[in-house]
Amino acid sequence: MTERKSPTAVLHEGPRALTDDQVREIEESDLAGVLNVDIDDVIEYVHKDLKSLPDFTTLYRKYLKQRWNVYDLDFTQDKIDWKEKMTEDERQSFMAIASGFHHGERQVEIELPVFMIGASEEEKIHIAAQIEDEARHTVFFDRFYREVVGFEGDDIMGILDASFPWVAETFVGPFGLLAYQADEVRQNPYDERARVRYGTNYFLWIEGVLALSVMKVTLSYARWRGFLPAYYTGFTATCRDESRHVQGGMRYLQDAVRKDPTMIKEIHDTLRTILMISGVNSRQIYYEPLGWTEDEVRMLFFLQLRRKLNDVGIDLSPDLEELLQQVQPVLAGG
Amino acid sequence: MAEPRFFSKEWADAVGDALTAGPSEQARGAKLQEYWDFFELIKSMYPASWALGCRDLPAGLGAGPAYLRVQWAGGVVTDCRIVGPDDPLEATYVLGMDYADWKALHEGYDAQRTVMYRKILLEDGDLLEFFTSIYFFVECLSVIAAVPADYPALARR
To answer: Which residue of chain A is at minimal alpha-carbon distance from B110?
Structure first.
C-alpha cells in the first residue's frame, strides 16, 4: 500500500485506461499480492470486459485461478488499527457501511441458488462458483466482526444479529425485493421475464452499482490511511470476485435482451421501482470520517449505473432518465 | 382488562386504529425526518388493500388460514377485519406468514428482517408495485406487531 491519494480522486479523474501489466497484476495476484493492488484499478477492471462480455466458461476458468482462502487472512494488525489507531467517528462510519455488506453478502449468497434452475448448463457452472464466492465473502465478514470489531456470537447468525443495529431501514428496498424475486423465480424457474427482473436487481443494481460503489468507500479509506491490511486484502479480492459476477450478470441481461428485445421493459420496470425508493435515507450516515461526502457516494452510484448501462448497450426510457435526474445529486466541484 | 385475542375482531379493530394513527413517537425519533416525510406521502395517497394471512392459525384462535384485511384510502384505514378461510378474499396484495413468525414479530423480531428473510411472503399482487411502498409496509408491520394481543404459545415449530 504505497499510493496514498485521496479516496475520492477517481471521481474527478474519470475512467482510466489499464495497462496490460495492471490487468495482469489484478488477474494473477495471489491473496498476499492483492494487498498491493489499487482498488480503483480493480473497479476499472470490472468495466474492462463489459463491452465484449466473456462467456460463462471463461468466467469459471478465471474463478478457479482467482479463488482465495478466507482462512489465510491474518487480522492481527487490523485489530490493532481498529482499537488503537482509528477514531470512534471512523469506526462508527465504517460500521455503518460494512454492516450493509455483512448482511448483503449473506443475502446474495442465499438468494442465488434458485436462479440456477432456469440457466444454461454453462451458466449453472458459473453460478455455482458465484454461490461459493458469496459464501466465502459472508465468512470474511464474520471473521472481521469477530476478530477485529470484537463481536461475540455462537454462530454466523449470532454475528449477523450483532451487526444488524448498524443496518439502515432502507436496506429492505433492494434486498427485500431480491428475496421476493427469488421466491418468484423459485415458483416459476423458467419464467424468463421474472429472471430478467431478478437479474436487473441482483446483477445490475446490487452488485454492479451498490456493491462496487460502497466497496470503494471503505477500501479507499483503508488504502488512504494505510489501515486494516487484511480487510483491504480480503475485500479487494472480493471486489475481483465481483468483477466476474457483474460480467456474468451483464452477459445474462445482454443475451436476454438480444434474444427478445421486449425484455428491456422488465429491466426498465425493475429500475423504476428501485430508483423510486433510492432517494430516501432513514438514518444519517457520516461518510466524512472516511474521506467522502454523501453526495459523492451517491454520485458514485449513478456513475456506476450509467457505465454499466452504456457498456452493455441498455438505453433508459425518458421517464427513467427523468427519475435518475431527480435522485442523482450534483457533485460540487466534480 | 384482558388483551384481545390475536386475529379476533377486537384485535382487528385495534390494528385499524393503530395503523391510522401511525408509528409511535419513539419509532419516529429513531429515523430521519425525510424518511417519515416519504412514509406520510405514501400513506396519504395509498390506495391499496392488504390481506395479511396467518397460514396455520391455531384452532383456538379460529383455525387457519385466515387473513387480516386492511383497506387504505385517503391516509386512513377504512376497513380492517378478519377474513376466514371460507370467505371471499379480495385484496391488492395477499401476503402470508406462519403463526410462529407472527408471534415472534409481536415479541420484538425485526419487521425488516421479517420481509428480508421471507418470513412473510407476497402470495398475490404486483411485486414491483408493492415494493415502491415497501418502507411504508414495513413500518405498518411494526405497528401491527405492537398492538397488544394474546398470542397463545400453541403452535411451535
So the answer is: A164
Residues on chain A bordering chain B, Cβ-to-Cβ distance under 8 angstroms:
107, 164, 167, 169-173, 175-177, 179-181, 183-184, 197, 269-270, 272-273, 276-277, 280-284
Cβ-contact A49, A23 below 8 angstroms: no
Give the separation between CA B77 and CA B52, rounded to whole angstroms: 14
Give the Cα separation of A299 and A209 in Å (integer).
Answer: 11
Of B38, B121, B127, Cβ closest to residue A280: B38
Query: For A48-77, how does the pLDDT look when each residue is reduced to its tens digit (9 = 90+)?
Result: 777 778 999 999 999 999 999 999 999 999
d(CA A171, CA B135): 10
Q: What's the full length of chain A, in residues?
A: 334
Q: What are the sequence ranges of the domains in chain A?
A: 9-327
Cα separation, B22 vs B15, whole angstroms: 10
Contact status, residue A42 vs residue A240, Cβ threshold 8 Å: yes
3-state SS, residue B123: strand
Q: What is the mean pLDDT of chain B?
A: 93
Task: Decide if the complex's ipTM is over 0.90.
Answer: yes
Cα gap B143→B153, rounded to integer Å: 21
Q: Give the per-residue SS3 of A165-179.
A: HHCCHHHHHHHHHHH
Sheet holding B120-124, edge to edge: B76-83, B66-73, B49-54, B93-97, B120-124
Domains of chain B: 9-146 (3.30.1050.10)
Instruction: Name the CATH topology of A9-327.
Output: Ribonucleotide Reductase, subunit A (1.10.620)
Sole residue written with cell 391455531: B58
